[in-house]
Design a protein that fits this description.
The structure holds 2 protein chains of 2 kinds. By secondary structure, chain A is α+β, with helices and mostly antiparallel strands. Helices cover 34% and strands 32% of the residues of chain A. In chain A, strands 1, 2, 3, 4, 5, 6, 7 and 8 form an 8-stranded antiparallel sheet that branches. The radius of gyration of chain A is 29 Å and the shape is extended. The relative contact order of chain A is 0.10. Chain B is mainly alpha-helical. The longest helix of chain B has 21 residues. Chain B is elongated and about 55 Å long. The termini of chain B are far apart. At the A-B interface, helix 1, helix 3, helix 4 and strand 8 of A face helix 2, helix 3, helix 5, helix 6 and helix 8 of B.
Chain lengths: 262, 179
C-alpha cells in the first residue's frame, strides 16, 4: 500500500467515508504497524476533540445589529428621488438621450486613458535575480543546516524535489524542478515567523523572482535548481507551503514543516 | 410551519424583504463561529458576520438554487473573513476574555486549557488549512460542500484536510499536548 493511499484510508475512516472493504484493509495494516496505529489513534482523537469544541456565543445584540445593517425598510430609489424633488422643489429636467451617450463616451475614454497611464507608470515587481550579486548570492550552503523535511514531485507537468533544512535562525529551501512548459512556483509562509533573506539559482534561465510580504514566487521552465533562504524569527515549528501553478491553475500543493532542535 | 431557506429567499426576491430576518435568525450564530475560528477575534468576527449578511442580502438574486443556501452563505463568510484578514495585522494569541468561563459547558480548567491550545495551534496553521479545519470540524460540512464553498476540487479539499490534521497534531505535540 502506498503512503498516500494509507493516509487517504486513515482520514476516510475518521470521516466515516470508507467502504467496509477499505476499513478492513486499513484495520489489517494498522494491526501490523504500531506506529501507524498510533498516528491513526492520535488523528481520530484529535478529530473528536475538534468536533466537540463548544460554540462561542456571539454578542446578544448581534442579530439586531445585522438587521439594522440591512436596508430592508429603506425607500426604493424611485421613491427617494420623488421625496427629494418634493422637498427641494427641483424642476423636472427633460431627459436627453444624446447627452447620456456623450457622458458615457467621455467616461469610457477617461477610464481607458487612466488605465494606460497607470500601467505605464506602475513599477514591475519582478526581479531577474541573475543580475544581482554580492550580498544576495551565496556560493555554499552553511554546514550546520539540518534536514527538516523533503519530498519528491511527480506529476504530468513537473518533476522535482523539495528539501527543507534549518538552523536555529534560518531555513533553507533547496528546490529542483524540471518541466517542459513554464510553471510558477510559490512558497507561502507566515511573515510573523519567517522573512525572505536570499535567493540563488544554479542555471542561467530567467526566473522572474517576485517577493511579497508572505510569498516568494518564481517562474521556471526546463531543468533548474534554486535555493531560497529565510530568516527564522520564531523558536516554534512553522511551515512553508509549496504550490505549483501551470497557466494559472494549481497543479500541486504540499505543506512542509521546519524542524527545530529540541 | 418552518420554511426552507430557498422559500425564504424566494419571498425576499418577490419583494417580501422582511423575510430575510428568518435567515439571520437561523444562521447568525453559525456564521459568527466560522468567522471567529478563522479570525480569532471576537470583535472582528462580529463585524465580519454583519458584513456577510449585508452582502448576502444585496446579492440574493445571484443565489443558485442548485446549491444549498447555507453553503452559499459560508462561501460569502469565508471570503469576507479572508478579505478582512488581508486588511489587518495577524495575531497568534487567543483572546482569553472571549472564552467565557460562565458560558462554556466545560467547567474544568483543563478543558479550557485544551480549547486554548487548540485555538492557538489552529491560528498557527496556514490559512488554507485553517479554513478547511473550520469548515469540516466546526461547521460539519462534507468534502463536497467545502469544495463548493472554497471553489476548489474535492481532491484538494481532502488533501488540505489530511495535511491540516497532521500539522495540527504535530503542533499540539510540540506544545506538549497529549492527544
Amino acid at each position: 500500500m502506498t503512503h498516500d493511499r494509507l493516509i487517504e484510508l486513515i482520514h476516510g475512516e475518521i470521516d466515516g467515508v470508507n467502504s467496509p472493504e477499505e476499513s478492513t484493509v486499513l484495520s489489517e495494516h494498522l494491526s501490523k504497524n504500531p506506529e501507524t496505529q498510533k498516528l491513526f489513534e492520535d488523528l481520530y482523537s484529535l478529530s473528536n476533540i475538534l468536533d466537540k469544541t463548544p460554540k462561542i456565543d456571539p454578542p446578544k445584540s448581534l442579530e439586531k445589529l445585522i438587521l439594522n445593517s440591512i436596508p430592508v425598510n429603506k425607500l426604493s430609489t424611485k421613491k427617494r428621488m420623488e421625496f427629494f424633488k418634493l422637498r427641494l422643489r427641483l424642476p423636472n429636467f427633460a431627459f436627453q438621450l444624446r447627452y447620456a451617450y456623450v457622458f458615457v463616451a467621455g467616461l469610457a475614454i477617461g477610464i481607458v486613458s487612466f488605465s494606460i497611464l497607470y500601467s505605464t507608470l506602475s513599477r514591475n515587481r519582478s526581479v531577474d535575480i541573475s543580475t544581482l550579486y554580492g550580498t544576495m548570492m551565496r556560493d555554499t550552503t552553511p554546514a550546520n543546516f539540518q534536514l527538516a523535511d523533503q519530498l519528491e514531485i511527480h506529476t504530468s507537468d513537473v518533476e522535482g524535489a523539495f528539501t527543507l533544512k534549518y538552523t536555529n535562525d534560518a531555513v533553507l529551501a533547496d528546490i529542483l524542478l524540471e518541466s517542459t512548459e513554464e510553471i510558477a512556483l510559490v512558497l507561502e509562509f507566515d511573515r510573523n515567523d519567517l522573512d525572505f533573506s536570499m535567493f540563488k539559482k544554479v542555471n542561467t534561465e530567467a526566473s522572474n523572482l517576485a517577493i511579497d510580504k508572505d510569498q516568494v514566487k518564481l517562474s521556471s521552465v526546463g531543468k533548474n535548481q534554486y535555493y531560497v533562504v529565510f530568516n527564522d524569527k520564531t523558536p516554534a515549528l512553522t511551515q512553508i507551503v509549496l504550490k505549483v501553478y501551470k497557466a494559472g491553475s494549481l497543479i500541486y500543493e504540499k505543506a512542509m514543516s521546519t524542524g527545530k532542535a529540541g | 410551519m418552518i420554511e426552507s431557506d430557498v422559500e425564504i429567499v424566494q419571498q425576499c426576491l418577490n419583494g417580501h424583504k422582511n423575510a430575510f430576518r428568518f435567515i439571520v435568525q437561523r444562521y447568525h450564530k453559525t456564521i459568527f463561529n466560522a468567522a471567529f475560528r478563522i479570525l480569532n477575534d471576537y470583535d472582528d468576527a462580529t463585524e465580519v458576520t454583519q458584513s456577510v449578511f449585508v452582502k448576502a442580502y444585496e446579492n440574493l438574486y445571484t443565489f443558485n438554487k442548485r446549491y444549498k443556501f447555507f453553503s452559499w452563505l459560508y462561501r460569502i463568510a469565508v471570503n469576507e473573513s479572508l478579505n478582512f484578514l488581508g486588511q489587518r495585522k495577524h495575531t497568534d494569541e487567543v483572546d482569553e476574555s472571549i472564552i467565557s468561563r460562565d458560558k462554556t459547558p466545560y467547567e474544568s480548567y483543563d478543558d479550557l486549557e485544551i480549547q486554548d491550545k487548540i485555538q492557538n495551534a489552529l491560528m498557527r496553521l496556514n490559512l488554507d488549512y485553517r479554513v478547511v479545519i473550520v469548515l469540516c470540524h466546526f461547521q460539519d460540512l462534507s468534502y463536497k460542500e467545502i469544495s463548493y464553498v472554497l471553489d476548489i476540487p474535492e481532491k484538494t479539499v481532502k488533501s488540505r484536510l489530511f495535511t491540516a490534521r497532521q500539522l495540527l497534531r504535530g503542533l499540539l505535540m510540540k506544545e506538549g499536548f497529549t492527544i
